[in-house]
C-alpha cells in the first residue's frame, strides 16, 4: 500500500518556484499519509513534481534509472505477483537490478517492452512513469481498477494526479466543483460510479487496463489490455481442474511478502477457500494462519433472515476455525462505532460510499492493522462465478438496466420534486447502462440469450466488482492495511468469462464451478453453503442513531443536503417500518442504508464545502 501524487507540464519549469510547489507536494503526502505511514518523499524537477507515501510492505519510491543516457522515473502503488518471471525475462535482455523492488521491475519492463508492457503483469497497481528527456508522463492503472488513480488539469494545462481525490485539491487554484453530472453519479448511480468518472467537475479516474499519456504531441488514453471473447473448448473436468489451479496459484502468488499476514474468514465458501489454501501453504513452512471474522454487537439476537441474507456466519466461522486450526480473532463493531465511522468512510473515499457496509469494513480493517500488515480476502468471487441472485433471474437478464438497482423508487422517494425533475435520472442511468453494455465482449455466433448472459457478467466485472474493489482498497488503505484479492486475478477472470452459463450453473447449482474446484479443500457443509453476503447489523439501536442524525440534519437549515431532499418525505420515511428484504443497491443497502447514505452525502458536501 502506498500513495502517489504529483503534477506534470511539458513546458513548465516548476523549479523556478520551489516555495510554491514543494509545500504543495508535502500537502499531497499529508492528506494521503494513511496509505503509507512508513516513509514519505517528494521530488521537484523542471517539468514535474512527485509525492510518495510508502507503507511497510511497499517499495521505496520514486525509483529512477537511465537508459541510453536518458533519465526515467516511476512511482508505484501496488504489487506484482509475477516478479520472478519478469525478472528472469528482463535478465535475458541483459538488464541488471539495483534493488529487489517491484517499482524497478515495473519501470524496466516499460523500457524493454514499450507501452503495452503492462499486459505482461500479474498484479495490482497504479503508477506514474516519467520520461524526462521526451517530456512525457504515463499514468497506468491495473486490469480491474483495484488501485485508484485520479487526475485533472489546472487552468494552465498542468496535469495533476493523485491516488485519492483529495490530493488533487492540494494543487494551487484547484477547488472542488459539482454539476448535474456529478449529482447524477451520486443520486442516480451511487455508490457505483461510471468508470473513469471522478464526480467533481473536470476530475477523472484512469480507466482500468488503460494508460493516460501526456506529452508534447498531445493528451490521450488508450488500453493496454481488453477482456476478449472466444469459444470455450475445455470439457467439464478440464475446466474444473484449470479453475482449481488458477485459483490456488493466485492465492499462493498473493502471499508474497514478509510482513505479518492474515485472512478474513466469514464462513462462506469464498473466504473459506482462500483461508484453507493459505493455511495449507503456511503449514508446510511450520507456520499457523491467523484469521479474522467480523460481526456486530448483539447481531445473533436481532438478526432477521431474508432471501438475501439467509443465515448468521458465526456457526460456519467456528467450523472453519476448527478445520483450519487457525489463530482466530472474532471482531465486533458496536452500533455507535458503526454510525460514527460513516464520516471516516467519506474521508477515505472523498465521496459518499456504501454507507455502513463500507464504514464497518473500514473499522474492522483498522483493528486488523493493529497486528497485521497484509490481509487476504474472498472478495469478487460472486462477480466472476455468478453468485448473485440477479445472475439467475430472467427478469434481471432481460431488464436492460443495472441488475443490482432495478427499482429506482427508493432513490427517488426522498428527493425534492424539482431536483428529481432536473436530474433526468432514468435518462442518465439508461445512457450509462447502454454505453457500458455496448462494450460487452461477444463472439460473432453468440445467441441473444448468450449475449445477455455475457452482458450481465461484463456489467458485474466493470461496475459492481469495481465498486467492491473501491470499498476494499479505501477501507484497508485508511489504516495502511494491504488487502489482497486473489479472485480478481486476471487469468482467472479471463478464463471464467469464456465459460458458457450452462456449465457455470449446471443443475441449478449457484457458483457450481467454484464449488467443484474446491472439493477436498474445505468441508462440503461450507463448500455448498447457501450464499450469505457480508454481514450487516439488524440492531434497532443503529436505526435510532441514524434517525437521530437525520433529524439533526433536517433541523439545521445550513445542512447542504437539504438542497436535494424533501423534509416531509424524509419524515414519513422515518416513521415507516424498515424493510431489510428489498435492497435498493446490491444486496445489503436497504432502508437503513438509505438513511446512512443520505448522512454520508451531507457529510461529503460539508467536508468538500460544496
What is the topology?
Elements: E1 2-8, H1 18-31, E2 39-44, E3 48-54, E4 63-67, E5 70-80, H2 83-92, H3 102-113, E6 123-131, E7 136-141, E8 150-153, E9 159-162, H4 165-168, H5 180-189, E10 204-205, E11 210-215, E12 218-223, H6 236-254, E13 261-264, H7 269-284, E14 290-296, H8 299-302, H9 314-324, E15 327-333, H10 335-349, H11 355-368, E16 374-376, H12 381-385, H13 394-397, H14 409-412, H15 417-423, H16 425-437, H17 448-477, E17 482-484, H18 490-498, H19 501-504, H20 512-517, H21 524-527, H22 540-555, H23 567-575, H24 591-607
Parallel strand pairs: 13-14, 13-16, 14-15, 16-17
Antiparallel strand pairs: 1-3, 1-9, 2-3, 4-5, 5-6, 6-7, 7-11, 8-9, 8-10, 11-12
Helix pairs in contact: 2-3, 5-16, 6-18, 10-11, 10-22, 10-24, 11-17, 22-24
Amino acid at each position: 500500500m502506498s500513495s502517489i501524487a504529483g503534477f506534470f507540464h511539458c513546458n513548465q519549469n516548476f523549479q523556478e518556484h520551489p516555495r510554491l510547489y514543494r509545500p504543495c507536494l508535502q500537502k499531497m503526502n499529508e492528506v494521503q499519509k494513511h496509505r503509507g505511514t512508513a516513509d514519505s518523499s517528494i521530488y521537484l524537477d523542471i517539468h514535474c513534481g512527485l509525492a510518495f507515501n510508502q507503507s511497510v510492505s511497499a517499495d521505496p519510491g520514486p525509483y529512477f534509472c537511465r537508459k541510453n543516457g536518458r533519465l526515467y522515473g516511476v512511482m508505484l502503488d501496488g504489487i506484482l505477483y509475477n516478479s520472478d518471471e519478469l525478472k528472469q525475462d528482463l535478465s535475458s535482455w541483459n538488464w541488471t537490478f539495483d534493488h529487489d523492488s517491484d517499482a524497478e521491475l515495473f519501470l524496466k519492463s516499460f523500457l524493454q517492452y514499450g507501452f503495452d508492457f503492462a499486459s505482461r503483469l500479474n498484479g495490482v497497481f497504479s503508477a506514474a512513469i516519467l520520461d524526462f528527456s521526451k517530456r512525457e508522463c504515463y499514468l497506468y492503472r491495473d486490469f480491474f481498477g483495484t488501485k485508484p488513480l485520479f487526475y485533472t488539469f489546472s487552468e494552465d494545462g498542468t496535469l495533476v494526479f493523485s491516488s485519492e481525490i483529495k490530493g488533487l485539491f492540494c494543487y494551487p487554484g484547484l477547488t472542488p466543483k459539482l454539476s448535474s453530472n456529478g449529482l447524477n453519479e451520486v443520486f442516480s448511480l451511487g455508490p457505483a460510479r461510471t468508470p473513469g468518472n471522478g464526480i467533481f467537475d473536470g476530475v477523472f479516474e484512469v480507466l482500468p487496463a488503460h494508460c493516460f499519456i501526456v506529452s508534447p504531441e498531445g493528451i490521450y488514453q488508450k488500453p493496454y489490455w481488453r477482456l476478449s471473447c472466444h469459444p470455450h473448448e475445455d470439457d467439464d473436468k478440464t475446466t474444473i481442474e484449470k479453475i482449481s489451479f488458477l485459483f490456488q496459484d493466485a492465492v499462493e502468488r498473493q502471499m508474497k511478502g514478509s510482513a505479518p499476514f492474515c485472512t478474513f474468514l466469514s464462513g462462506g465458501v469464498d473466504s473459506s477457500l482462500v483461508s484453507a489454501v493459505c493455511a495449507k501453504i503456511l503449514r508446510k513452512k511450520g507456520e499457523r494462519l491467523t484469521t479474522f471474522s467480523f460481526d456486530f454487537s448483539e447481531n445473533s439476537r436481532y438478526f432477521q433472515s431474508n432471501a438475501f441474507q439467509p443465515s448468521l456466519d458465526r456457526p460456519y466461522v467456528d467450523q472453519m476455525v476448527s478445520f483450519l486450526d487457525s489463530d482466530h480473532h472474532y471482531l465486533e463493531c458496536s452500533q455507535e462505532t458503526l454510525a460514527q465511522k460513516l464520516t471516516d468512510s467519506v474521508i477515505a473515499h472523498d465521496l459518499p460510499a456504501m454507507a455502513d457496509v463500507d464504514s464497518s469494513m473500514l473499522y474492522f480493517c483498522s483493528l486488523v492493522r493493529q497486528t497485521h500488515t497484509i490481509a487476504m480476502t474472498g472478495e469478487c468471487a460472486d462477480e466472476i462465478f455468478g453468485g448473485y441472485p440477479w445472475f439467475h433471474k430472467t427478469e434481471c437478464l432481460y431488464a436492460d438496466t443495472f441488475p443490482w438497482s432495478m427499482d429506482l423508487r427508493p432513490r427517488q422517494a426522498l428527493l425534492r420534486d424539482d431536483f428529481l425533475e432536473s436530474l433526468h435520472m432514468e435518462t442518465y442511468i439508461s445512457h450509462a447502462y447502454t454505453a457500458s453494455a455496448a462494450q460487452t465482449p461477444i463472439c460473432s455466433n453468440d445467441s441473444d440469450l448468450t449475449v445477455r448472459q455475457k452482458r450481465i457478467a461484463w456489467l458485474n466485472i466493470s461496475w459492481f466488482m469495481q465498486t467492491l474493489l473501491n470499498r476494499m482498497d479505501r477501507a484497508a488503505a485508511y489504516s495502511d492495511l494491504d488487502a489482497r484479492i486473489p479472485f480478481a486475478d486476471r487469468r482467472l477472470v479471463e478464463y471464467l468469462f469464456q465459460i458458457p452459463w450452462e456449465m457455470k450453473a449446471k443443475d441449478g447449482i449457484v457458483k457450481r464451478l467454484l464449488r467443484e474446484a474446491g472439493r477436498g479443500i474445505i468441508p462440503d457443509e461450507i463448500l455448498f453453503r447457501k450464499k450469505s453476503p457480508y454481514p450487516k447489523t439488524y440492531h434497532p439501536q443503529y436505526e435510532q442513531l441514524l434517525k437521530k442524525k437525520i433529524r439533526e440534519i433536517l433541523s439545521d437549515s445550513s445542512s447542504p443536503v437539504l438542497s436535494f431532499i424533501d423534509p416531509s418525505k424524509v419524515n414519513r420515511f422515518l416513521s415507516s417500518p424498515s424493510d431489510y428484504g428489498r435492497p435498493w443497491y446490491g444486496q445489503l443497502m436497504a432502508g437503513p442504508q438509505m438513511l446512512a447514505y443520505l448522512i454520508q452525502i451531507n457529510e461529503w458536501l460539508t467536508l468538500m464545502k460544496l
